[in-house]
Structure formats: C-alpha cells, structure tokens
Amino acid sequence: MTILTKPISGEKKDKLAPLVQNDQLASAPPTEDVEGQPSDVVFLKARARRVSTATTLCLILTSLIVVSIGIFVGKSLYNQYISAQMRRFTGYAQIPMPSEDVETLYFRERNPMPDSALLKALAGDDDDDDDNNNVKDDFDNIMRNYFREDFEIDLDGEKYEKIDVPDFRDGRSGRFIHDFNTNTTGIIDITGNRCFVMPLNRGHVLPPRSLFDLVNKMWDGYYKVDTQVVRETMRVVTPPLKDLKGVGSYIAKECENRPVYKLEKYVGGVVKRSADLHVQAKFAQFSGNKITEFDILNFEDVQDYEKKNNLH
C-alpha cells in the first residue's frame, strides 16, 4: 500500500543550487564604438575654388604694368644721370689774345703744353730760386694775354653749347649758351643777374661736334686758331621778355628768375668807340671762329629800367 505525503498538484521544487556560487568576475569597461559615438571633429565638405579667366588676365596685366613702369623709371634715371654724363663733354682751354710777340699756348687739364720754362715754373724746382722766380714772372706775363673758357658741349644730339668766360680781359664774366634747335644765343650776365638773347650767328659759332674737334686739336697743341677780334654793336630792347618759349629750354632754364632782354644789331648812327663803353657793356667769347665781342650801346637804359622797376 502506497502512502503519498504531498499532493500531486504542487509545484516542483527549484533545482538544487550549486554548493559553491562564484561571484561574477569584474569585466573590463566596454570599448566605445567610434562609429557609433558623436565626435568633436566636424568635417565639412569644401568645393575647390577655381580661378576665373578674368582674374588671371587682370593679374597678368598688373604684372606687365609694374614691369613696364620699372623699366621706364630705370631708363629715365639712366638717361638723366648716367647716359647724359657720357654724352656731354666738359673741359676748358686758354684762348690767346691777339698779340704778335706772344706764342700760342694752350692747356690740357692738369697737363700743360711741353714748354720747358713753363714746366719749371709749374714744378717749382728749388735748385735755382732766382731762375724760378723769373720764370714765374714770365709765365704770369704770358698768361695775361690769355683768357680762359669752360666748355660744355652736347655730343649726342648736338643741340647746345655752353661757354663760360669767367675772366675776359676788358670784358665781363658771363656764360654763353648757343641753342641750335631754336637758333638762339643767350648771354647770362652772372654779375648783373640778367640775360640777353639774340639770333645765333653760325658764321662765328661752330656746331657742337666741330667745336669739340677744335678743342681737342688745341689741346694737342698743333692747331693754331684764328683769334682775331670781331666787334658787333648791339642795342637792348626794353622791357624784358615775358614769354620765353621762343628762346628754347636751355636758355630759359639758365635765365630762370632773371630778366631777359632782347638784343638787336645796331644799324646806322653814331657809334661809341669800344674803349669808351663801360666795362659792364662788353661781353666776348671764342666759339670756334674768331673772338666775338658784343658792345651794348644803351646799357645804361637797362640799368635805369631795372632801378625804376626794382628788379634787383
């Protein structure tokens, strides 16, 4: 006989628990999913900018303009400061005054003519002081028959000549400018601070290249020039000129801030002797063919006009 101690309808007991229950081991922190996590770096899609054709052309044109300006400025500076110096001759010569008993003597800069007496005078040899003193006296006497001219000659365009006469015997120190573009001669009265202009006389004034060749021959000492004095009587026209465009740029530049008077050749009437004229009324130059002396008859009219109008 079977005896049941529990009803059949009761729930089954849980399975037996294990005798030893192990604690769950600490696991490593889960790795972050890079693709799944939000990132601090923001990636933006950028489109490549293409330079337009117009912009390229503008850059090229700007570069060409800058280069052209640089070339132009460089060429201008070269022509003004370097090339002009190379094309312009500057020098001086001693011009002999007419005299039958004085031998022609010319000087090259820092190189006198090979005259033994003059070389001794310039060298100052101490061996014989008395002889040296006599030679120097002779040298001074000879040089009284000469006057110096400083030349500036345009050899490139042959447009002008400048002749400075710092000390002419019985004359006035001044500067002559011959402008071959306008066929005008200008006389700058440096002491009186005034200018005179008149037509260029090509019969007495050699062209720049010819004058340069003549000066070189004078320096070499084998060319004897014609230094006969030719006197031209002139009269001044007052008032001074207001428009200097007709006299040329070279004369206008030299006569800036100076009154400029026109000279006319005097024709007819009684003429004063050259010796009777005031020394301020005489200007002379040698420009290749004879010594030309300009005698201004009415020079007192110029002085009176300037005094009345307070020009000086």
Automatic annotation (TrEMBL):
This protein's GO CC annotations: Golgi apparatus; plasma membrane
This protein's UniProt keywords: Cell membrane, Disulfide bond, Glycoprotein, Membrane, Signal-anchor, Transmembrane, Transmembrane helix
Membrane topology of the entry: Single-pass type II membrane protein
Subcellular location: Membrane
Transmembrane parts of this sequence: 54-78
Annotated GO biological process: negative regulation of amyloid precursor protein biosynthetic process
Protein name: Integral membrane protein 2
Organism listed in the record: Tribolium castaneum
